[in-house]
Structure prediction request, 332 residues.
Amino acid sequence: METLHNETTISLAQLLAHWQGHRGLTRRVIDAFPEDQLFSHTIGGMRTFKELTMELNSMGATGAHGIATGEWKELNKLPGAAELDVNPKTKEGILRLWDWSTDYINNVWPQVHPTRLQETDKAYGQWEGPVWWLLYYFIDNEVHHRGQGYVYLRSLGIEPPPFWDR
Amino acid sequence: METLHNETTISLAQLLAHWQGHRGLTRRVIDAFPEDQLFSHTIGGMRTFKELTMELNSMGATGAHGIATGEWKELNKLPGAAELDVNPKTKEGILRLWDWSTDYINNVWPQVHPTRLQETDKAYGQWEGPVWWLLYYFIDNEVHHRGQGYVYLRSLGIEPPPFWDR
Prediction:
């Protein structure tokens, strides 16, 4: 664990607010899709935005849980998730998963130890790195795919919500 | 300025490496565009990737300079930039600006004070917020627009460099 002498860059509470700000914007992008196009529209052989969103749904609450506890589980194995429909067939079902994850992240975050982000862990038993790097991967991956959702929406003639509004 | 009691989330050196990792990937995405499509290809009335890249070029070195010094300047007003072509008409010219900025960021970053990210500043005299928030905006905006570049490349039948490779 690296020692950071007298550096105060960003707090855990600020990181949570930053992540949740992005998540709120991503929710509005999901919601901006017409139901059918969310499940069918694609460009250049890429995944639909439903599929991209489900990738994000697989790494939100589970990622926060892993950061907070060191346990890396699938979504339906998290406490309270047994009743969740993790294979939603509607926009409403996707958004329900999203909102459940948002609450889960808020609730588990206070368990993150003050120096946890400087530890090394292996996310989902596969990706090894500093915990801050894992957290930033979850956030950056969301921004990356959401940016792709912006192009999908524009190509459908729909104006996406503004990027800066979180 | 918020006091962060005993929290070590991410160091300034790690933030620099994180940003530069993203910048290296974005450079490969720019380079993956055929010269003509970089300046002409668009989807749904959006800007070309050249225009998106030039937005990023306007906020890289200048953003790091602002974070390090509190001075917010246009690119061609930075020390050593007077000879730069800040309106490039070729991919080579865009990449030259990119590489110049990458070096500039590396060189100015050690001037960032250990508690600077918890200060509030007004970037370019316009956007006021915590300095960490300004830094994250620069990075996130790059990830956002680069994700759009991925769709442009896919729509041209070109495989983009992998997202995780930084």
